[in-house]
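Can you make up a polypeptide sequence alongside its tokenized fold?
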Amino acid sequence: MAVEKGNLSIHSENIFPIIKKWLYSDHDIFARELVSNASDAITKFKRLVSMNEASASDDEVYEINITLDPEKKTIVFSDNGIGMTEEEVKKYINQIAFSGAEDFIEKYKDKSDKEQIIGHFGLGFYSAFMVGAQVEIQSLSYQDGATPVKWLCDGGTTFEISEGSRIARGTDVILYVGEEGASFLDEYTLRQTIQKYCSFMPYPIYLEVVGKPVEEKEPEPEESEDSEDADGEDTKAPERIALNTTHPLYAKSPSECTDEEYKAFYRDTFHDYKEPLFWIHLNMDYPFNLKGILYFPKLNTEFDTIEGQIKLYNSQVFIADNIKEVIPEFLLLLKGVIDCPDLPLNVSRSFLQNDGFVRKISNYISKKVADKLNSLFKSDRPAFEGFWDDISPFVKFGGLKDDKFFESVEGIYLFKTTDNRYVTLQEYREKYPEGKIFYVSDPIQQSQYIKLFKDQSLEAVILDHSIDPAFISHLESKKEDITFARIDADLSDALKDGEVPDEATHKEAVEKLETLFKESLGKDKLSIRLESMKNEDTSSLMILSEESRRMQDMLKMYGMSGMDPNMFPVERTLVLNSKHPLVKRLMTPSDDLSEDTKKMICEQLYDLAMLSHMQLPPEEMTKFIKRSNDLLMRLI
């Protein structure tokens, strides 16, 4: 074969320097592209063998070998696939953006399944120049009498093609690594890169480092007598260790997988040794091909610290983590693997093209998650309640982000009550059919209110997660008959003794108390309520307007807490229990109670009420402690 030189043929607007410098966002993508090409070459050859258009031995072993030589600064990607002739090299390599995979599919479209071919654009090979200062191809076609071919290019727009030296069917892609790719001459970096992108490729991938022993594992012992020599010793050779799993669990039918296999796959894939709560195995062939496993991990308590990871694959080739167009946003909090060969990728196979098809995939995933949750709820309610605290942020966030998802799961939203029960909204309303749904946002801080409820055999629901304020507002917008009120937002009628006081007498008592407290506290806008409560031990409570408190919470959530507090003040009302001795004493004219003592009692009752739902500012707390000591001293 004579040496031939020429210029690369540029198709369309794809200019080679742009491909080299800017088509791929990450330099390490070269490993994915070159291994994918090697995998395609093997798949094509196997397809021809199955159609009797090529021949191979019965014990043929298909594999991809990567050889790293740090001293020579080379990385070789080698396969025993279909190989290329000189004409094919000119056609598929010299003409940038001419896809060999597409050409093969077109030729054999009536005889083959194109979904098993990874490459579609013909640009992946040129990612080699992101790390290689010079790239060489040595290839020998499967065709009888084929001549090996060598192709060489230094990253410019010229190439050299001549007779090659390869003697076995297949292709070597040799990277002469330049400065930009120097980090990949490190074995650990190269190994991690291959495992990142190629963990589930369909053929075994082996890495060999020149000058270092090949990593091997001992074979499993066999009971057959043929496996032992005359001395009774095992004669099977050690096996090389592949960097990938050729038959990942998600590609299997769910009926073939055990719980232990699901847990092991989770540990190996995400390096998380806490067992997942449960998982959903996706397996769909129509109207699109999609397989995968979504895991619900055990969560931290704070919603904003959750970091999930859903790995997206295309024909067992890693594309990216957490692609929002495919994965519904709320499910990005999960961990999982999804493989969809039908994804409409752009030419760099890194991003999705805009396509209504992608939305269908996203909707399907949401539906399958909703179906799984409903199934778990109906089939094993106790188990569902057991992990509800961990999964509720997912489910609530999903309801906020996706109306269809909310409609699918609204009947299984659980609410933990102050009696440590889990109830649905419907079950809570059946027990308390009228009035507001009282909730607790801080069981410790609001413990006094909880005690009042429990004393009257009442329950409030606990909503103490950071997503809950938005979630209950969403529920109220969806359900006109539902209103949530924090347990300190109002005094439930069930906590009152039902006595109806004389209106004139009651009004006069309230006016006197209001005047006394305003003067004692120096708070002109203080609102006072006088109630006859069943619990005589409680002297005072502070109730907050639900509407104004939610406005304050929203301002804090959006970082607007520095705004003038007078714009949206929290409306507080001091509730005094007319049955408590201290309140009775203040209501009864008496000469033996000094004005100073009255003032201190008013201040104390106010601070006690404030402490029932919030921490006092440092200065106010100091005054409260000093006043408490002064009052105790008056008892001596």
In short: The radius of gyration is 36 Å.
